[in-house]
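ok so for the tutorial part 2 we go from a plain amino acid sequence to predicted structure tokens. step 1 is just haveing the sequence, like this:
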Amino acid sequence: MMDVNAASDHELDRRALRQKSVIEPRFKLIRFDDLQLGTERPYLVKGLIPRIGLTVVWGPPKCGKSFWAYDLSMYVALSWQYRGRRVHGGPVVYCAFEGADGFKARAEAFRQRHLQEDHGEVDFHLVAARANLATDHAALINAIRAQLGNNPVLVVLDTLNRSLQGSENDDKDMGMYVKAADAIRDAFGCAVVIVHHCGIEGTRPRGHTSLTGAADAQLAVKRDAGSNIIVTVEWMKDGPEGDTIASKLEPVDVGRDCDGDIITSCVVVPVEYEEAKAAQTAKRRLSDRQRLALEALTEATLNSGKAPPPAWQLPANIRVVQIEAWREELTRRGVIERTAANPRQDFKRLRLALAARKLIGDRDEHVWAA
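step 2 — the prediction. this is what the tokens look like for a chain of 370 residues:
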């Protein structure tokens, strides 16, 4: 006759075995009453960048999108409010797949403009290496885990073109890139910002539409007629659209090279949007040559601008450049033809017209944007 206790133990073992054999379903049903509103922040930068997801920041070359993405990243790393918007701060990993050499100057410009000498550690980390994200994303994830020690809140991929081996227009190549970006997002539960160029027509991000279809937010960057950087929230899955931020690049002398020449970079500074629109309206009244002349002056100033003598009593943010450097930039761009009958007279007329409208200032063979 079977022992009652033994039978009971046997039954318990059978029940335990049945429970172990129950596999947790891959697709779990959540009851309606269990759908409760959470209190976790849904944003990385409120109104701009979702807390978790892919954000595409796109625009034409030289529009300032990389400068702007870097500036935003620094505010996240420092847990500072960004233009009055709340920020979910934390570690930032910025993958500079192009133009990495210039980041030392950008970092020094930001340091001089925004940080005190005794500032604490900044949780910003640069990856300055070429990569094929589709095949290298696992190695990138492992490197971040090993060296950072905790999860980043933001990973920036700048730019898509420099981290894609294949065609941006091929659905398979772009699909693999999006899958790799998703893997980074899922690995760290973070925001991933993809900096990308525009197409030839300039109306949308370049390449296959699978990128924009996968994005949780899309921000367009452009330069207006006043050379301001205008960032517009084109769409966002779980947030308002149409918000606009206006900025401008301000040159900063960050040091000198081994030849004693000044090294210049830029910081991003805010501009009131209404002010930017007013400047844009004013610039629309300029002729094409006058507008191009101002753009050439901006480029010449970025390349070789310097602080004016204190005796000139110009504003602290003004940088001046030799008039001859401006004229050479105009010639290089074809605004002034070398073969014209009197190119110097053409240049003089341009300069006087802009000075009459108080758009430039000049003194002692130097010129600056007013």
